[in-house]
Design brief:
The protein has 293 residues and is an all-alpha fold. The protein has one domain. It is 82% helix and 0% strand. It has twelve helices and no strands. Helix 3 packs across helix 8, helix 4 packs antiparallel against helix 10 and helix 5 packs across helix 6. The longest helix is centred in the last third of the chain and has 34 residues. The radius of gyration is 19 Å and the shape is globular.
Length: 293
């Protein structure tokens, strides 16, 4: 694979990792639902500008548009609210590690999804190992009796579960231009989370420059630009190589939290991340295929 493709994968993983840091900065002035609204709203705006500027076929049958709007609720609106909701009690680094369990959830949901891909023994083992990593991740919370932190971890785990369902639903739209898919999906996410956020948290009152900066970064850069780049990379690099971004994101989340927010990394965090990585390697299977070759 060309070096420029590896560079894009590295930038995507690093950017998505820092999104958890920006969540924490946004939570200083905004509620978790408003954080989701800001991300999907700015993300949708960026995708609309790109789609119209590049002449993408945004016109679709009403049934397809309705499906894409609904997909955005599961793929973007809810997960982007669950992570900041949990990050009120857990660090961005821990949230980033939890996000790395997305392939595990995709495997589980796909196994039981009608017409979905059945898990092999090796993938099932990878899922089991990955969940063992989650248990290790919760040990500091359980030992300290932190009920709120344990609740926050479970809430954040809801985001990868949503990704597991959304990934299988998205297969219905495989023939649609990916930029069009992202544009309509993010629009649906905005239309859904907007009334909910304003109704429960009120109209946002932004007074700090860092809040506007974080919204622009997490919306335009890490949602619009990142997903457009991902969808352009996917056909040429393939899903297997593109999936390596999963290994970069939690590392970036941990490092950005330490450097920018002075968060503390516990040994259990590193151990849990290592075990989850082992589970991802088992699911990926490339190492074992290479040894057979």
């Amino acid at each position: 694979m060309p070096l420029r493709h590896w560079l894009i994968i590295f930038l995507l993983g690093t950017g998505w990792g820092t999104s958890f840091m920006f969540n924490e900065l946004l939570l200083r002035e905004l509620g978790p639902l408003t954080v989701s609204l800001g991300r999907v709203g700015f993300g949708a705006l960026g995708c609309w500008v790109w789609a119209l500027g590049t002449g993408r076929p945004l016109r679709q049958p009403p049934g397809v548009i309705a499906g894409l709007l609904g997909l955005g609720v599961i793929f973007f609106a809810i997960p982007f609210a669950l992570f900041p909701l949990g990050q009120q009690y857990i660090s961005g680094g821990v949230a980033g590690i939890i996000n790395a369990t997305t392939p595990l959830m995709v495997i589980v949901v796909s196994h039981f999804w009608p017409g979905g891909e059945r898990a092999t023994r090796l993938k099932a083992l990878g899922v089991a190992v990955g969940f063992a990593g989650i248990i290790i991740l919760t040990q500091p919370v359980l030992s300290d009796g932190g009920g709120a932190e344990l609740w926050a971890i479970l809430v954040a785990l809801g985001a990868p579960v949503c990704y597991g369902f959304a990934t299988n639903i998205a297969r219905r739209f495989a023939r649609i231009d990916p930029t069009v898919l992202a544009t309509w999906s993010l629009t649906g996410a905005t239309l859904f989370i907007g009334p909910v956020a304003i109704g429960l948290e009120g109209a946002p009152q932004i007074t700090m420059a860092e809040t506007w900066f974080s919204l622009c970064m997490i919306g335009f850069v890490m949602t619009s630009a990142a997903f457009i780049a991902l969808y352009r990379l996917l056909p040429v690099a393939g899903p297997t190589m593109t999936s390596t971004v999963t290994f970069i994101t939690p590392v970036s989340a941990l490092l950005s939290g330490v450097v920018v927010l002075d968060e503390v990394i516990l040994p259990a965090h590193l151990a849990g991340m290592a075990v989850i990585f082992l589970g991802l390697v088992l699911i990926d299977q490339r190492l074992f295929l290479a040894r057979r070759a």
